[in-house]
Amino acid sequence: MRKKIVAGNWKCNTTVQEGIELAKAVNELVAKEGNKNVVVVLGTPFTHLTSVVASVDASRIGVASQNCAAEAKGAFTGEVSAAMVKSTGAGYVILGHSERREYYNETSETLNKKVALSFANGLTPIYCCGEPLSIREAGTQNGFVKTQLDETIFNLSAEEFLKLVIAYEPIWAIGTGVTASTQQAQDMLAYIRSLIADKFGAAVAEETSILYGGSCNAKNAAELFSQPDIDGGLIGGASLKAEDFIQIINGF
Ligand code: PEP
Fold first, then answer.
1. What are the pLDDT digits (tens) for 79-117?
2. Which of 25, 56, 72, 161 could make an SS bond with 242 (beta carbons 3.0 to 4.6 A apart)?
3. Domain extents in the chain
4. Considering only the top CATH level, what class is 4-249?
C-alpha cells in the first residue's frame, strides 16, 4: 500500500541552532502523539542536515535536503552533491521545487541529472510539479503538469519510478495563503495518477505517493488528506512551527 507522507520544507529559514530546536520539538511531538501511519520528513537547509539527523528518531522521522547538485563532484563551487547529502544520513531530496525552477533556472534537463544522481546515491526524490497562476487561469494546468512529468520522471524505468514521491504544488498556492480547493487538489492528483497508470500501469499508479503542497496548514490538512488521491502534504510555512506541523501530521 502506498505511504502517507507529510514532509516539511523549511526553505531558507532557521539557523542551525534554531533548526535543531525545531527538529527536537517535532521529534518529541511525533513520539508522544504522532500518527504512526504517517511517514514524517523534515526538509532542512544543507547546513542543518547532519545535526537534524542526529536530533530525531530515524525510525519515525526522515530528513531531506531541498536540492542537490546536477553533477556528481568536482569544480562546482558552492554546490552540494547527492553523495554529500547521503553522507549526512538524510534519506530524501526535494527536487524541482517551483522556487528553484523560477529563481535558479532549473530545467527539465538539470532535473533529470539530479534525479539520476539521487537514485545513484540511494536518496528518495520528492519530485515537485505544478502550474503558475496564468496557466490555471487559462485552464491548461493538466497539460502543463503532464509536460513537466513527460520531460523528466516519466522517462524513468518503472522500478525507479516506484522509489520516488511526487508533490503537486500549484505555484499560485505556495506561500500565498491561497490553498487550492480540496476538489482542485484531488482532481489534479487523480489526473497525475491516471497519467502514471497510462505510462507505467495501474499497479505502479496505486503504489505511488502523491502529495499536495501550497498553503496546507493545521486547519485545512484533514480535509485535503481525506481525499482518495491525496497521500499527504509538502508543507512550507506551517512546518516551521512544531505545534502546527504535528496537527498536519495528525490530519490523517
Ligand atoms: C512549499 O514551498 O513547498 C510550500 C508548500 O509552501 P507553503 O506551505 O508555505 O505554501
1. 999 999 999 999 999 999 999 999 999 999 999 999 999
2. 25
3. 4-249
4. alpha beta
- In sign, the C-alpha dihedral spanning 11, 53, 79, 18 is positive
Grid cell in block for residue 117 = 544522481
Closest ligand 1 atom to residue 215 Cα is 10
C-alpha cell at 219: 486547519
Span 155-200, pLDDT tens digits = 999 999 999 999 999 999 998 888 889 999 999 999 999 999 999 9
- Mutate-to-test residue for ligand 1 from 5, 6, 10, 11, highest number of ligand atoms within 8 A of CB: 11
Buried b (16+ CB within 10 A) or exposed e, 141-162: bbebbbebbeebbbebeeeebe
Mapped onto helix, strand or coil, the DSSP state of residue 38 is: strand
Element (H, E) at 186: helix 182-200
- Taking the chain, what is the end-to-end CA distance rounded to the nearest angstrom? 15
CA distance 71 to 117: 8
Cβ of 8 below 6 Å from ligand 1: no
Residue with cell 506541523: 245
